[in-house]
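Researcher: Here's my situation. A collaborator sent me these components and asked whether they could plausibly form a single complex. I don't have experimental data yet, so a predicted model of the whole assembly would be a useful starting point for our discussion.
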Amino acid sequence: MTEPLTLWFVLALAAGTYLLRLAGPLLRDRLQLPPRAGQLISLAAVALLAAMVATQAVTDGGSFAGWARPAGVAVGAVLAWRRLPFVVVVVVAAATAAGLRMLGVP
Amino acid sequence: MVISFDLTNEAYRVHDEAMRSMWRTLDVRLLRDVGALAAAVLVVGASFGAIAVAEGVPVWLVVAMSTLVFAGGAQFLAIGVLGSGGGAAAALVAALVLNIRHLPFGMTIAGVLGDRWPSRLVGSHLMVDESVAFAIAQRDPARARAAYWACGVALFVAWNVGSLAGGFAGQAIGEPEAFGLDAAFPAGLLALLVPALREPSAGLVALVGAAVALVTVPVLPAGLPVLLALTGLVVVLGRRQPAERPPGPSR
């Protein structure tokens, strides 16, 4: 590694990450938000998580992740929408992607 | 069907009775779901440990990072930027930008953590995409708390045990891609979001947000596209009181 990972780096990243995590509950406490704002904040988490799903499903390091991963996620999405159990969704999505890779799909 | 989803602090005071009933509500299905996710996290943690050690990081520092940071995406990103010669400052900024999403997450699940300091201080550290998603997938506040803590603790243990094992085993551990785990995580998050996405306004917000994130991935640094997904909220800003409620546990 050109510049090594140091304990100071880990401590700085840990402190920054923890403050970002703690800031939400503290802010929510200080701000007296109207109910409408509370509803929007609940929706914000859904928007962020949906974006995590989309970007993780299709991209890797800023470029296309290949076909196996989005195919696996798509199969999982269909099962999830049809209300199949969480474990089934996760296992079938993984098996689809892994199976496609065994067949040579990137 | 009357489902109220508003996450307010008042609805979530952590009472002693609520804490006692929390563990009763942890039913078999929830534990099974959390267990499946923890197994996947164990493998990805092992992969992280192996990659970090291959980059020259000592095992103790790998485990210290996984314990103190506990954010897989940011940890992989930091090791990657350092390994490609990006420098410590760039690696730190990149990893922290990726973690900014925890701030709005924290505002959403503030009620789940309650207003007691021990719960807030410890619970904040367990805030990851999956624990947040598990919490907002529950309709009832006690279940949301139980799901958040069960998922957070299980993933914390799995991530650290995995990092330690991977650090020692090195490259002997298989690639998570070979098991399709890179597809399992987005699929699992999506499965947790589905109940929320069935509400038309939440579905629309999510769709617009995901589209904005996808379009901006090629041109923006990691983390920013996901934050831009918040622009999806504009589709409901104009409405005064929506007929349907936003997602999250009910009171």
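Model: Some features of this prediction you could bring to your collaborator: Chain B is about 70% helix and 0% strand. Chain B touches chain A through 113 residues (CB under 8 Å).
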